[in-house]
Amino acid sequence: MNPQEDNRSIPELLQDLASSTTERPEGIVDWMHYGFRLRCAGMWDPAVRYATLDSLEELALSLSENAVAQLTPLFEQRAWMAGRHDLRTLADLLWPRISPAAQGNFLAGAMQLLEGDAFSASAKADDLSTWILQRLPMTGLEAPAAAEIGAYAIICKNYTLLQCLLNRDDLPEGPVPRFSGYRDQLRFEEQLSQQSTCVLDVLLEAAIRCVRSEAVQLLLERGANPNIPCWILERNFNEWHSALSYAIQEGREKSREGAQKIVGLLLSHGADPQGLECAGRNLPLMLAIQQRDWALADLLLDLGATFEGGQPYEENSHGHKGKVISEVHLTMGYREEDLQWVDQKLSPLISLAKPWEIPLFLQGDGQGGHIITFLGNLASDQHIAQLRKYEAKGLGTTLTPMLLLNLINGGCYEALRHLLRNNPDIGRIMFRIRRRKPDFATQGNELMRCVPEHDGSHTLSGFHPCEETALTLPDGTRVHAWLDCVAPPAHSHGPISPGCFWLQTISADHRRWGEHLKTIRTRRVWRAVKVPKNDYQLEDLIPLVKEVNDTFFLLGITLRSLSFGQKLPGTWKECVEVWKNGVSTHLIREQFVERMTAQMSMNVDAPRPVLGEKDLKAYPPEFWPYLLRLDDGTIGMTPDGCRLKPDMLDLYEVWARQNKPDKNLPIDPRLLAWKMWPQIPVELRPFFHFDELFQKPSVRHNARNPYEEEMIRAAVQWNNEWMMKSLKEAGL
Question: Can you tell me the distance from the alpha carbon of 456 to that of 453, in angstroms, rounded to the nearest whole number?
C-alpha cells in the first residue's frame, strides 16, 4: 500500500493504543488481595481483545520507514497495552528498536490474553504461549512485568512458562506495586506496610490463592518466603492470613487435596506453625481445630504451635486503629438475664475468669462478628476425646460466663462434667442448671437408651407389640412402632377438614441421670394432621415405644428421628441402620397408611372456609382452619372449631390486645360469639347479624319476601328460647 493512499498519522491509525495511558495498566497482581476476584476466575476479564486492530496493524505495517520510526516511541511508551491488544506482528517488526524493559512489558500485557475468554480457540492460546516462551529468556524484565507474567502463568497452569521465568539469573527481586487497583491507597497504609513486594513472594501468594501446588513447590525451591502475609479485602470484612492459614482455610474451599499438598510444602520449607500475629483468629491451629482436621492440629502442635495468641480487648474501642475486641463483641448473642443467672447462681460455685483473661479472637462478619476461643471450639460431647488430649498439650480450660452458657445451651453434659471434674460442688451446679433448663443434656441425644421411671409411671398400658416389626437392641431391650396413635374409623373426635386425619401426637420430658436418660412425663394430644406427602413426613408421624422388662413406655421420638441426631455406640448405630433399611420399616409404613386411609374413609368433612387472603390476615393464624363465610357475606366460625378449641376466646382476646388493630380496619368481633353460634340451626344462620352493642348474634328484621318473614319469626322464637335457657342455666 502506498503511503499516499492513507495519509492518517500513526496515532490516528492506532487510536486505542495512542489514547491509552502511559502508566502500567491494572493486572491480576493489582487485584490479588481481593479474594473474590481469584475465587471467580473468568468473571472479570482484564484482557479484552480489540478485533478492529487487526486491519489497522496491517495498514501500519504497509507504511514507510519514516512512519515506522514514528511508531517506535508510541510502542515503547505503551508496550504493556500493545501486548494486551496482541499486536505481535508490529512487535516482531519493532522488537530490535524498543528497550528490553518495553519488551518485558509487552510480554506482560500479552500474558493477560491467556486467561479468561480472550481467545476462544485453544490453538491461538498455544500459539501465543509459544511466542512468549521464545522471547522470555532474552527479554529484559522489571519487577512489575515479571510478577504479572508469573502470576498469569500460575493461573493458567502454564508451568513451563513459570519455570522459564524462574530460571533467569537476572530475575528482579522487586518492588512490585500493591493495591494499585484502588485509587485511595491511603486507606490501606497498614496493609501496604505489611505486604511483601518481592517478586517471588507475590508469585507464591498467587499460587497459594489459586491452589497451584506445583507452582508453590517451584517458588519455595527458588527461595520464596513461606511466612508472607495474605490480606483479603471482601465486601463485608477484611481479614489477615499467613500463607499457611490461607492454604488451610481458603484453599480447601477450592481443592482439598491441593491445599493439603500446599500445607505440607509450606511446613517443610519453614513456615511458622504458630502463624503470624497480624492474622488474628486465622491462626493455623485454630483453623485446623475448626475444620476438625485433628491430624493437622497434632502436626502443628508437634512443630511448636501453641494455644496462645488472641486479639487485644478494650472496653471502649471507639477510635482505636485496628481490630480490637470490645464489650459489645463479648456479650453479642447472649441474653442479659442468662448472664445475670450465671453471675448469681453459678459463679459462687465455679471459678469463672473474666472473658478477656483467656485468648479471644474476633470473627468478623457483616453483622459485627462474634467471639471464638480454642476451648469453645473443642468443648462439646462429640469432641470429648480431643478435649482431653489437647488439655494435656497445653489447652487452657478456664471457663468464662460465655463459655459456660455455650456448654449449657448446647447440652454438653460430658464436656461440662470433664471441665468441672475437680469441683467439689459439681452436684449442686448440675442441680441449678437443671432447675433453669430441665431438658439439659437431653436434647435429642441418646434417647434410644432411655429407661422408664422405677415406679412405672408414664408407661403405656394396653399396648400389644408386633413381633414381626420389633427392633431388638444390643442391651436386650426392644423398640416398637405405636400405630394406635391413629384414631380408629369409629372415633368421636368430630368433623375434620378434608385432607386431614386424627392423630395422637406425643411429647415427652427427659432428665439426665448419670450416663442414662429417663422419661419423666409424656403428653398426648389428639390433633388434626395433614396427610403426609412422602415417606419422610410419614415416618415423622409414627411414635416409637420402648420395651424394658415387659414394660412399655413412649420415647418421645419418631421413626424418622430414630437415627437422626442420636448419640449412640457404633454397635447400636449399625443395628438401627440394618433395621431401618429392612422389611420391618416398610411394613410399619404400610400398616400406618392402612389405618390412616380407613379412618379418612369414615371421617365427616368440616365446612371448608372460603376466604380470601385479605380476610384471613384480619385474624390470628390459629383461627384460619375454622373460619367460613356465611350466606350474608359475614364471617363466622365452624362448629368444629368452636367445639375443638374451647380456649379460643381467651386466645383471641390476648391476640387483639397485643396487636391493637387499626380502628379503620376493625377486627370482626363475631368470634366472641362462639358459644352461641354453633347452637344456631344452620338454616337460621343467614337471618342473624352480629349485634356489636351486646357482642352477640341477634335476628335481623329486614325481610324481603314472605319466606324470609317466616324464617325471621322462627329465628326470633329460637333466639328467645335460647336466651331463656341461658338465663335459667345461669340462675337468673
Answer: 5
CA diameter of the chain: 123
* 635 three-state secondary structure: strand
Separation of alpha carbons 81 and 105, rounded Å: 8
Rounded Cα distance, 20 and 22, in Å: 7
CA distances from 291 to 70, 154, 211, 277, 283 (A): 61, 27, 18, 21, 12
**Would you state the cell numbers that stand for residue 481, as one nine-digit string?**
412402632
Q: Is 65 exposed, middle or buried (0-12, 13-18, 19+ CB in 10 A)?
A: exposed
Q: Does the predicted TM-score (pTM) go above 0.90?
A: no
For 36-48, what is the mean pLDDT? 41
Strands 370-372 and 361-363: antiparallel
Beta bridge partners of 548: 551
Report how far residue 248's alpha carbon sits from residue 254's, in angstroms, rounded to the nearest whole number: 11
Q: Which uninterrupted H or E stretch holds 521?
A: strand 516-530
Cα angle 527, 531, 535 (rounded to 5 degrees) comes to 120
Cell numbers at residue 227, please? 511466612
> How far apart (Å, rounded) are the C-alpha atoms in residues 279 and 232?
11
Please report the beta strands in 187-295, taking only residues with DSSP state E, as ranges in sequence order. Answer: 229-233, 238-242
pLDDT digits (tens, 9 = 90+) for 542-589: 998 888 888 888 877 888 877 665 666 777 788 888 888 888 888 999
Helical packing angle, 159-166 and 143-155, nearest 10°: 150
pLDDT over 70 (residue 373): yes
Q: State in Å, rounded, how far the first CA of the chain is from the last one.
A: 120
Label residues 683-701 b or e (16+ Cβ within 10 Å = b): ebbbbbbbeeeeebbbbbe
- 3-state DSSP assignment of residue 394: coil
Measured in residues, the chain has a length of 732
Pairing of β 370-372 and β 516-530: unpaired
Distance between alpha carbon 457 and the CA centroid of its chain, in Å? 42
pLDDT, tens digit, 9 for 90 and up, residues 491-513? 888 888 777 889 988 877 777 77
Other C-beta atoms closer than 10 Å to the C-beta of 66 total: 9
| Cell output for 595 | 389405618
Q: Is 95 helix (H, G, I), strand (E, B) or coil?
A: helix
How far CA 8 is from CA of 11, 12, 212, in Å, comes to 8, 6, 48
